Recover the amino acids of this structure.
């Protein structure tokens, strides 16, 4: 059995049980900027195959995926326009995105917005970046939405018709191209974010061990929540990279089905447990939980840990990891006993994800010192405690 056959069977169970609502939920989540290990492209191909078999009307599949794309991308656009602009203009200089360069990019996008948006939406690896750029640079929503609709529909139609007319056979030709592109879609933003964090810490002259929580105590929970949200995105992007790398490495051993599909099949098993409706509710909850743990770390834990920043976050991550292993995974196992236990693979994946989250949280949180006077950025307890009046 080929690797696509195993994934197709898992997708078939999910789609057959929930219909086009399954594709709607996953694509909406992906388009809202939440990385998912099962790419939306595979869902488009899978729905195309199901439409050919008469399981799903083709027009219905296209309509539902287009609506999911418009809704999810609109959410991402609003988030980028509200929060992304301040972050980019405040911290962009650390990756050579000076205000002058950002203003030039904004002017270019405003002038060529319609064509740029459509081309960006049909280019693998640039679909999310296009939406974020439109939000950050203030492209009017009335101009953004029609361009998005056209570009997204072309992309959806192409992949769905490939599945409809060619079926699984087209994947043998696409897998060598799609997997590297899918990898870049997560790897590039991950690299940019990590480089940005490293350069920001260096520009602020932060030591490996800081006392960030001792300054501006009133806003510790807020800054921790922001750090927790960013750490959640970073850890999810990193896990996506690992999933795609596993798929790419498996291309070197075509007969090794287990290495190639184990991670995706485990994810699909979880999706079958919770279903698309709960998935739509669980995804924002997933982000909110990451934000909440960040606030907990900043308010009550970080001030009492005097380790290297990333190591402090890593130690703290043991707490949410225990919650996941003791409560979340057993609950999923109990909800679908017929699928069998998720087993050690899921536990190892959760341990790795929480380790990445904790390390990122510990490294990001001290960047809150960027808002403080330079005199308060000296990472000693005495300097931060003695001068609270300088914090405004």
């Amino acid at each position: 059995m080929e690797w696509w056959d195993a994934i197709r069977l898992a997708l078939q169970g999910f789609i057959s049980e929930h219909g086009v609502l399954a594709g709607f939920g996953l694509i909406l989540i992906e388009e809202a900027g939440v990385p998912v290990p099962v790419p939306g492209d595979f869902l488009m191909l899978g729905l195309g195959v199901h439409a050919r078999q008469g399981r799903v009307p083709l027009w219905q599949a296209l309509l539902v995926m287009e609506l999911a794309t418009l809704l999810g991308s609109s959410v991402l656009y609003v988030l980028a326009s509200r929060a992304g602009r301040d972050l980019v203009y405040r911290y962009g200089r650390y990756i050579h995105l000076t205000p002058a360069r950002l203003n030039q990019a904004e002017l270019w996008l405003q002038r060529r917005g319609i064509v740029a948006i459509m081309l960006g939406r049909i280019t693998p690896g640039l679909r999310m970046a296009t939406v974020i750029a439109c939000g950050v640079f203030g492209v009017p929503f009335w101009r953004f939405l029609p361009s998005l609709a056209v570009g997204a529909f072309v992309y959806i139609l192409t992949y769905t018709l490939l599945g409809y007319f060619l079926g699984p056979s087209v994947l043998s030709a696409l897998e060598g191209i799609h997997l590297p592109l899918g990898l870049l879609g997560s790897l590039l933003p991950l690299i940019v974010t990590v480089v940005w964090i490293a350069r920001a810490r260096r520009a602020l002259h932060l030591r490996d061990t800081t006392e960030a929580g001792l300054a501006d105590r009133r806003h510790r929970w807020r800054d921790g929540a922001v750090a927790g949200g960013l750490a959640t995105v970073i850890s999810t992007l990193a896990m996506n990279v690992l999933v795609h790398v596993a798929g790419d490495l498996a291309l070197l051993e075509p007969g090794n089905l287990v290495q190639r599909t184990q991670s995706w099949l485990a994810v699909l098993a979880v999706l079958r447990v919770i279903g698309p409706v709960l998935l739509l509710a669980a995804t924002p909850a997933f982000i909110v939980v990451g934000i909440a743990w960040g606030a907990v770390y900043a308010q009550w834990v970080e001030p009492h840990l005097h380790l290297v920043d990333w190591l402090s976050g890593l130690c703290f991550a043991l707490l949410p990891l225990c919650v996941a292993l003791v409560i979340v995974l057993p609950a999923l196992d109990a909800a679908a006993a017929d699928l069998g236990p998720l087993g050690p693979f899921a536990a190892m994946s959760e341990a790795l994800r929480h380790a990445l989250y904790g390390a990122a949280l510990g490294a990001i949180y001290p960047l809150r010192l960027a808002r403080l006077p330079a005199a308060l950025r000296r990472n000693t307890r005495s300097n931060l405690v003695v001068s609270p009046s300088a914090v405004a």
Summary: Residues 248-265, 379-392 have pLDDT under 50 and may be disordered. DSSP finds 15 helices and no strands in the chain.
